[in-house]
Write a structure and sequence with these properties.
single chain, Chitinase A, domain 3, four-stranded antiparallel β-sheet, 14 helices, 3 domains, Triger factor/SurA peptide-binding fold
């Protein structure tokens, strides 16, 4: 132990001796501390979420301690790299949470009051969660490489499947084995998993067992995962899950990280996605010191009348006068695109106009336009959607394993000291 850590430990022990029963230093993590109040608050939150579930107090405290340790390590790493979450980013995340719950931001703030948690505390905890998620993703992006060939292979597999996609929602229990585990360690974990499977077969509640026994990242949510495509799941799970129906208990399945128990909670279908794309051409005039809004509108109105009389004039006016550098040299021609890639006013015109129709002059943030719709096509976007899904699936498939390994490495390299409470003299 370094001299710096000895001094930190001495100071913290001195603080603990003088501390009131309300709070104390509970764990040293490198040069940081975890307060007992942090542990107690996290435990209470999980108990409130679990409602009437029967939880193993000691197992719950141990899970919370380990999570807080890895959180501290990740936040320290973020700080060392000068990474922050701005107030603007935080406010946006809070507004999104409120919208998802059909609440205003003020109503979301008021929901904090009954639970006894100050909104300012909730806000800062969310900031930390966002920072941890950011550094985790940044780290995984640097470690995980997805090749185009791998995407092609997965897309081919997806497109051979039924046109109606299927998603699964599962619950998961992981009984982990230590790194460099001995046969004794492996057998102990296997026996533990088999005992849990027997309890589940006899009607035990999966959520309660996951909260009490699982070493998985989602344990505090009862082991429940969000809806997921079969291809995004770990390879070990796929074949077993595909063959079964909701409420089936699967496992134990052995992997390098331990033994897994799975319950299929629900199976959900997915349909094709169709998108209309539009080919068009336009003329743009921008407001300037020598051209005000009224003058630009009148000039376009004059050109529009001339174009209606002679359609060949559209390309001529665009080449000579349009102030859109990307399209003017092509007679105002824009590529076949989803209308929604343009600003809202422009997109609205493209959606409303019929093929061949010309718009009246209209204004956007870019200036004044006239536009003509030349072609509309409806495409099945499933192939592009499959490619996007395949990329995400391949990333997600590696993500959890790589993340667990990285967190394990952080934990192994860290100095961690548990501080026992000082017992008063009799």
């Amino acid at each position: 132990m370094s001299l710096k850590r000895y001094l930190l430990l001495f100071c913290l022990l001195s603080m603990t001796l003088q501390a009131t029963p309300i709070d104390r230093a509970a764990i040293i993590v490198n040069d940081q501390i975890i307060l007992q109040s942090e542990i107690d608050r996290a435990v209470l939150q999980i108990k409130q979420q679990a409602e009437s579930e029967q939880l193993n107090e000691q197992a719950l405290i141990k899970q919370v301690q380990e999570r807080l340790i890895t959180d501290k390590l990740q936040l320290a790493l973020a700080k060392s790299r000068s990474l922050t979450i701005s107030d603007l980013q935080l406010d946006h995340a809070l507004e999104k949470q409120a919208q998802q719950k059909n609440l205003t931001l003020e109503q979301l703030r008021n929901t904090m009051t009954p639970s006894g948690q100050p909104f300012a505390t909730y806000r800062e905890e969310l900031r930390q969660q966002m920072l941890i998620a950011y550094i985790q993703r940044a780290r995984m992006l640097s470690k995980i490489t997805i090749s185009e060939a791998a995407i092609d292979t997965l897309v081919a597999s997806i497109e051979q499947a039924n046109t109606q996609k299927v998603k699964y929602r599962i619950a998961h229990i992981l009984i982990s084995t230590p790194m460099h585990a001995t046969n004794t360690d492996i057998n102990a974990s296997k026996q533990h998993a088999e005992e849990l499977k027997q309890q589940l077969d006899q009607g035990a509640d999966f959520k309660t067992l996951a909260m009490n026994h699982s070493d998985g990242a989602e344990a505090k949510q009862g082991g429940e995962w969000d809806y997921m495509d079969i291809h995004a799941m770990p390879s070990l799970f796929k074949e077993s899950i595909k063959k079964n129906q909701p409420n089936t208990i699967i496992g134990p399945l052995k992997s390098s990280s331990g033994f897994h128990l799975i319950k299929i909670l629900d199976i959900q279908g997915q349909q094709h996605v169709y998108q209309e794309q539009v080919r068009c051409r336009h003329i743009l005039l921008k407001k300037s010191p020598i051209l005000n809004d009224q003058q630009a509108q009148r000039k376009l109105q004059t050109w529009l009348k001339n174009i209606q009389a002679d359609p060949k004039l559209f390309a001529i006016y665009a080449k000579e006068h349009s102030q859109d550098p990307a399209s003017s040299h092509q007679g105002g021609q824009l590529p076949l695109s989803d209308p929604n890639v343009y600003v809202p006013e422009f997109a609205k015109q493209l959606k409303q106009l019929k093929v061949g129709a010309l718009s009246q002059p209209f204004k956007t943030v870019h200036g004044w336009h006239i536009v003509q719709v030349q072609e509309k096509k409806t495409f099945d976007q499933m192939n592009q959607m499959h490619r996007n899904q395949a990329r995400q699936m391949l990333f997600q498939r590696q993500y959890m394993d790589e993340l667990q390994l990285w967190l394990h490495e952080l934990r192994l390299k860290a100095f961690v000291k548990y501080i026992e409470p000082i017992q008063p003299d009799a």
